[in-house]
Design brief:
This protein has about 500 residues and is α/β, with parallel strands linked by helices. It has 22 helices and 14 strands. The protein has 2 domains: about 10-285, Rossmann fold (3-Layer(aba) Sandwich), CATH 3.40.50.720; about 290-495, N-(1-d-carboxylethyl)-l-norvaline Dehydrogenase, domain 2 (Orthogonal Bundle), CATH 1.10.1040. It has helices at about 40, 45-55, 70-75, 110-115, 150-155, 160-175, 190-205, 210, 215-220, 240-250, 290-315, 320-325, 325-340, 350-365, 370-375, 380-395, 400-415, 435-440, 445-455, 460-465, 470-485, 485-495, and strands at about 30-35, 60-65, 80-90, 90-95, 100-105, 125, 135, 140-145, 180-185, 225, 230, 255-260, 265-270, 285. The chain has a 6-stranded parallel beta sheet with strand order 5-2-1-6-9-10, sandwiched between helices. A 3-stranded mixed beta sheet has the order 4-3-12, with helices on both faces. A 3-stranded mixed beta sheet has the order 11-13-14, with helices on one face. α11 (about 290-315) runs antiparallel to α13 and α17 packs across α21.
Length: about 500
């Protein structure tokens, strides 16, 4: 017998403790969100529902699926409802969410998306489209002006890229005099508010002069770009998660997402058209996000990427497997203590050592099946914000970034060998995959591989590419990874450290 599908009509059949904390039928849309993936549904959508439940407001979410209609179709069939399974080693809990009240597929009707962004009822536009969704040059943080898709959007076609959607949405809002707006990037970008602002301005500069005369001044006066820091581990949903959700709820939920218990959101409080009371849901509202942002990117995300590349090379498929191995656990400790933490300054009262120690415990959660391949994807976009800043700061301090350099060397081994030590194929899922392959063609020795990759200005700025200290570390690490394998290299590097 086919189980009943999760929907508004079935909410009464679900245990009260598992239902939304508000009546979804009464919630009007005030937030437009680009990137209706698992992370948004397990993070910002949860904070928003809790904020509205605590303080009220018309802050329902219209969620936009960017790359595929699958999620939009799924949630549309469920009246926007889905569940979040929170998993720890000691057990799981589940909760149905009701904050997503509308769904769209961006490519289905781009003009409707632009029109909605210009609607006066929308006061906040948030985004989680991953680093590559903003079409950035990672080394400069600016929009890639030579991107043909961005160029086509700028020429006036119905927009298909995120910069195009945001740019034309702002133009249409300006034309309609629809009032102020906040654009809130919730992706792991350095200075993500300022970066998003630059993306929008760079895109608007592509428009014909007659279409943008006065636009930049209007943006300056009416549009804010608050910086944020987001943190929660949200792995890809698998078939067993669907089965567990059905068992816990008694109905079929095909939109379920899984997350760890930990969650953090730090937000720059700059919202000219208002916002939900996210602080009532546990978010931190502040005038300066940067210290939190840098700490999270380098401590959590940097460590995650380091374990993903070393773990993948060693033949490990889950982050929890990697961090539970005593050799990689020791490496992680050295990376954080000797390379990362010395580069950070944090707000008063924040225990940075405790924050760093918590990372291993979070990654070790066996109930969260976070795949190393998933974390290893898009390395060209992630390295600059997760690891290269640490390396730059240590070099400027006159230190050798030995441990962070090993992580970058592991990435170089990953994209050049494309096989793990046991012989499994390693997928290179990266927007610069073609450039990486072309640059590495014919490179055999560690020195050739390092020099070819350091020459990619889209990843490595001149100050790092020209560093003899860094080059020596990378060549040495890469040679050892290739000759002796990951385990022997990590053991030799950490011995006596």
């Amino acid at each position: 017998m086919t189980p009943t599908r999760l929907c508004l009509a079935e909410l009464e059949s679900i245990a009260p403790s598992q239902r939304p904390r508000l009546d979804p039928r009464q919630l009007q849309v005030g937030i437009l969100h680009l990137g209706l993936g698992a992370f948004h549904r397990a993070h910002q959508a949860v904070y928003t529902e809790d904020a509205v439940a605590a303080a009220g407001g018309s802050w329902g979410i219209c969620g936009v699926s960017e790359r595929s209609p699958r999620v939009a179709d799924c949630l549309r069939a469920q009246d926007g409802l889905y569940s979040v399974i929170t998993r720890a080693d000691e057990g799981s809990s589940i909760r149905v969410m009701g904050s997503v009240r509308q769904v769209m597929f961006a490519q289905e009707n781009p003009d409707a998306l632009v029109g909605l962004m210009a609607d006066p009822s929308i006061a906040v536009v948030t985004s989680t489209v991953t680093e590559k969704g903003y079409r950035l040059n990672p080394a400069t943080g600016r929009l890639r002006g030579d991107d043909p898709e961005v160029g086509a959007d700028g020429a006036g076609r119905p927009p298909r890229t995120v910069p195009g959607q945001l740019g034309w949405g702002i133009v249409e809002r300006w034309r309609r005099r629809s009032g102020p707006l906040s654009l809130v990037c919730c992706d792991n970008l350095r200075h993500n508010g300022g970066t998003l602002r630059q993306v929008v301005l760079d895109f608007c500069s592509l428009l014909a002069p007659g279409e943008r005369r006065g636009l930049e001044g209007w943006i300056e006066e009416n549009v804010s770009f608050p910086s944020t820091m987001v943190d929660r581990i949200v792995p890809a949903t698998g078939s067993q998660d669907l089965i567990e959700a059905q068992s816990l709820l008694g109905v079929d939920d095909r939109g379920v997402v899984v997350a760890e218990p930990f969650s953090q959101w730090v937000i720059e409080d700059s919202f000219p058209a208002g916002r939900p009371a996210w602080e009532r849901a546990g978010a931190t509202l502040t005038a300066d996000v940067e210290p939190y942002e840098v700490a999270k990117l380098r401590v959590v995300n940097g460590a995650h990427s380091a374990l993903a590349y070393l773990g993948s090379l060693a033949g490990l498929h889950l982050v929890s497997e990697a961090v539970r191995d005593e050799r990689l656990a020791r490496y992680l400790e050295l990376l954080l203590d000797q390379d990362v933490i010395p580069t950070l300054s944090v707000p008063p009262g924040w225990d940075l050592d405790a924050y760093a120690r918590s990372v291993a415990a979070r990654f070790a959660n066996r109930a969260i099946h976070h795949r190393t391949a998933q974390v290893a994807a898009d390395g060209s976009q992630k390295l600059p914000v997760r690891l290269l800043g640490t390396i730059r700061d240590r070099l400027q301090a006159g230190a050798e970034p030995r441990w962070a350099a090993l992580a970058v060397a592991a990435w170089m081994r990953y994209v050049s060998a494309r096989r793990s030590d046991p012989g499994e194929e390693l997928p290179v899922d990266d927007p610069l995959a073609g450039a990486l392959e072309a640059r590495l063609a014919g490179a055999v020795t560690p020195a050739e591989i390092v020099d070819r990759l350091l020459g990619l200005r889209a990843i490595f700025p001149p100050e790092l590419a020209d560093s003899e200290v860094l080059r020596h570390l990378l060549v040495d690490h890469l040679a050892h990874l290739g000759r002796f394998g990951t385990w022997a290299t990590v053991e030799a590097e950490t011995a006596g450290a």
